[in-house]
């Protein structure tokens, strides 16, 4: 069901040709950043939950099951809200394309590449999405300001990710160049998906999430039936719980929050959650799986938070803080 930009963005101003989504002029408050943190928490849970689920459920079946569980969960909420999934071809073309570049293709690429690339370098390579999003925004789409501050934030976040995972992980890079290039292409796909996702801002975020997940799960279901024969599987109770939890928490709520953040914060700021997911994911892995705490976690966390701050806090806010530090009185005429 179509929904206006203003309804999604709160007090945002109307869109303009140079600002198609209207996000560049939208005032940001603590609720917007709380949504970003919630999105990072939802998606960071994928690390330990996937490890538990794949212990006894093969990957295609796992991805299809979690997507369909998430879609059915969101459809039930939409029904209770009195909303319906659109039935026109235009909407479903958008849902299908978005799901393909945001989930289906990049997930399959990374899953294949992980057969040849260890987990630590994979996390570092997959964390380059904000950098690619910046380059595409700056060099091609120009749909929102791509400042040097945001680029510096992306680089700091990537450095923090490498420190948390372990700098020795970088020593394993280039051992299988083709597989590593596949991972980088997958992150480019993720970056394109955050930009293309702005075209879905006319729809309620829950509608977009439900439609995309329903398409993705249905698309993979026959593949899972033919290749993995799920009726012959004997999944553990833990794997089933992980699949259901990931479907509802990571996929349903996560994708809905993702489109809400796109509408409120724009693509570059929304991509900053990718760095927040690293320390949160490490913490969940320690809590749920009993993994050891990385020795460089504190330093990496400082770099990650500095990078996220540079990517998310508006430029004019930095100016206000600098003025306060210098003892300057805010100018009411400037809106401070």
From TrEMBL:
SUPFAM superfamilies: Multidrug resistance efflux transporter EmrE
Domain of life: Bacteria
Subcellular locations according to the entry: Membrane
Domain annotation EamA: ranges: 34-165, 178-311
Topology in the lipid bilayer: Multi-pass membrane protein
Transmembrane segments: 60-80, 92-113, 119-141, 148-171, 177-200, 207-227, 239-262
Pfam family, one: EamA
Keyword field contains Repressor: no
Keyword Transit peptide among record annotations: no
Keywords from the named record: Membrane, Transmembrane, Transmembrane helix
Coiled coil: none
GO cellular component: membrane
Name by which UniProt lists this protein: Permease of the drug/metabolite transporter (DMT) superfamily
Taxonomic source organism: Bradyrhizobium lablabi
Lineage, top ranks: Bacteria, Pseudomonadati, Pseudomonadota, Alphaproteobacteria, Hyphomicrobiales
């Amino acid at each position: 069901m179509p929904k206006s930009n203003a309804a999604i963005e709160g007090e945002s101003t109307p869109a303009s040709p140079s600002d198609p989504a209207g996000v560049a002029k939208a005032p940001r408050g603590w609720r917007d950043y709380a949504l970003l943190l919630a999105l990072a928490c939802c998606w960071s849970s994928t690390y330990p939950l996937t490890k538990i689920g794949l212990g006894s459920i093969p990957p295609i079946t796992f991805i299809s099951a979690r997507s369909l569980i998430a879609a059915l969960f969101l459809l039930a909420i939409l029904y209770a809200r009195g909303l319906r999934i659109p039935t026109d071809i235009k909407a479903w073309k958008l849902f299908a394309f978005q799901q393909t570049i945001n989930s289906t293709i990049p997930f399959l690429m990374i899953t294949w590449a992980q057969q040849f690339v260890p987990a630590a370098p994979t996390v570092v390579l997959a964390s380059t999405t904000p950098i690619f999003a910046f380059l595409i925004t700056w060099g091609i789409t120009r749909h929102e300001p791509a400042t040097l501050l945001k680029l510096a934030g992306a680089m700091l976040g990537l450095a923090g990710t490498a420190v948390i995972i372990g700098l020795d992980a970088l020593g394993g890079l280039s051992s299988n160049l083709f597989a590593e290039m596949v991972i980088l292409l997958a992150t480019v796909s993720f970056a394109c998906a955050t930009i293309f996702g702005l075209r879905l801002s006319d729809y309620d975020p829950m509608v977009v999430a439900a439609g995309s997940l329903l398409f993705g799960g249905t698309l993979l279901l026959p593949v899972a039936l033919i290749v993995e024969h799920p009726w012959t599987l004997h999944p553990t109770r833990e794997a089933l719980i992980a699949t259901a939890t990931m479907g509802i928490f990571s996929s349903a709520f996560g994708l809905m929050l993702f489109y809400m953040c796109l509408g409120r914060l724009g693509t570059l700021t929304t991509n900053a959650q990718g760095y927040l997911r690293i320390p949160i994911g490490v913490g969940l892995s320690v809590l749920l799986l009993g993994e050891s705490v990385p020795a460089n976690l504190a330093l990496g966390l400082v770099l990650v938070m500095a990078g996220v701050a540079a990517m998310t806090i508006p430029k004019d806010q930095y100016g206000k803080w600098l003025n306060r530090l210098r003892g300057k009185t805010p100018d009411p005429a400037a809106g401070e």
